[in-house]
Write a structure and sequence with these properties.
It is built from 6 helices and 10 strands; from the N terminus they run ααβββββββββααααβ. The chain is of the alpha+beta class.
Length: 225
């Protein structure tokens, strides 16, 4: 069994390069998403070899194993997400922090990746406390996880998967959050947060971009800057 375990381990330098490339692939994919939306794109600022920053995202390596292989990544998202309710209305903040912990067997064992909320979030896939480990199944490497987390925070129905609309889905770790979500028009909540992201960053719209603007009316919405 030990020989099989060892065979799963990439040498530290190769593993770290793979993770670095995956993060850079994430930003390349994100740029394509911005272009598709017609939003202005800002190239990430590199701070050393393993820290990237844009107006919306901050990604950095925060811990390593004894052999210098990357163990954990901090992921900051300056995008709108829900941290609680004011009655039935969402309380929204624009700052979220997650920790992605990688097994030493990465990328062979992506099933052992842990995603942990280090800031408060009201979300079906995170514990009722709003902190701690998520119950998420993202069968992919770092770039896919980073992209998926954006749309988890934005409450994209295809990512959150409310059981009212997805027969094979469950209520996650916070059933109260899921009940609120699926009973208050998941698509409208997603579009609300997506539009708040656009508005909060004053993104320039490309003149040729075909964007359909939809107004979402929400009474009693509370925004925390």
């Amino acid at each position: 069994m030990e020989c099989c375990f060892i065979s799963l381990l990439f040498p530290p330098k190769i593993l770290n390069l793979r993770i670095k490339t995956s993060i850079e692939n994430f930003f390349a994919d994100l740029e394509l998403y911005f272009i598709k939306k017609g939003w202005e794109w800002v190239d990430p600022e590199k701070i050393g070899d393993f820290h990237w920053r844009t107006p919306d995202f901050d990604i950095k390596v925060i811990s390593r194993n004894a052999d210098d292989s990357i163990r954990a990544i901090q992921y900051g998202l300056n995008i709108p997400g829900v941290i609680g309710l004011n009655g039935k209305d969402p309380i929204i903040t624009f700052s979220h922090s997650f920790r992605i912990e990688l097994p030493r067997e990465y990328p062979a064992r992506v099933d052992k990746i842990r995603i942990i909320a280090d800031s408060q979030i009201f979300h079906p896939r995170f514990s009722i406390s709003g902190l701690g480990e998520a119950c998420l199944q993202i069968n992919g490497e770092i770039d896919r996880i980073l992209m998926d987390m954006i749309f988890q925070v934005l409450y994209d129905p295809d990512r959150v998967r409310p059981p009212k609309y997805y027969n094979d889905a469950d209520f996650g770790r916070n059933s109260s959050a899921m009940k609120w979500y699926q009973n208050n028009d998941p698509k409208a909540i997603y579009e609300l947060l997506l539009n708040k992201w656009l508005d909060s960053r004053n993104k320039k719209i490309h003149p040729k971009a075909k964007i359909i603007e939809k107004e979402t009316k929400k009474k009693g919405l509370r925004i925390i800057e």
